[in-house]
Model the fold of this input.
Amino acid sequence: MGSMHVGRQTVPRTRSSHWVVFTGITTLCWGVWGVFLDIPEQRGIPASLSYIVWALTMVPPCLLALKFVNWQVDKDWRTIVFGVLAGSTGGLGILLLAKADAIGPTYIIFPLVSLAPAVTIALALGFLGETATKLVWVGVGMSLIGIFLLAIRADQQESAAGVLWLVLSLAVLIAWGVNSFFVKLGTQGASAESILLYMTLGGLALVPLALWDTDFTQPVSSSISAWGLTAGIQMLNAIGVWTSIYAYRYGKAIIVSPCVNALYPSVTVALSLAIHAYVPPWYVIVGIAVSILAVLLMVAGDRTVPQHSDSA
Done:
């Protein structure tokens, strides 16, 4: 059986297409998560405390993943640094987005932040030497257009605190872009399970920051059902993070990042339509169509070239 070399590890060639499966699972988890994302705040749980719940829900998938590999963990400094950076940049992006959305125009912030895959693609091209066919590049370009259209918010907010919201939005854009890059970089030289462990620790490290950012002068729900529901919703996010690591492990960052970010909002919109009878604006429908076509092109284009290496 052929093999491809990734950093210090050797991965069977037959696993090179596994990224499609893991991308699909991630898309489904995050798509369902997106449908119920606003429920915790509606139930009296602020975004900063929802973050803490998410950080804690990362623990069960992490322990389960480690159990699957008999608790074998890579302990070299490279794995620890990239794993912690991946977890902390992802978590920081979540906290900063909540802050930006509270003071700035949502209809600008979300489309701007949605272009984070462009940062991942640029870093993957510059530092990982990833390449792709022309068909893949057409799909990547279309996916960014689709992501942008899906991120537009109709509820335009007029209030904005100076330019702070813009600075925070750009920080989220960069944080989430480098987050995916660190995941890919980490999994080139370590097991996905080890990266998940250090990502979990990186996310938990920001819990004090989330507590500090919480305004406890405002009422916070004490309902067990509200907190339980929040945990269930955030568990979907955590499982999506888990499977996304495998998607990056077996796939190229320049493909996986736009694929996931183009597809999961489409799933959210489709489920919202089915559950809440929500009829999206025309640009969202166009965004869904463009995103699906883009993903099909990227998958088809990636399969037209032999997988000699994880970055080729």
In short: The chain has one domain: 17-302. The longest helix spans residues 77-103. The chain has 14 helices and two strands. The first strand starts at residue 3 and ends at 6.
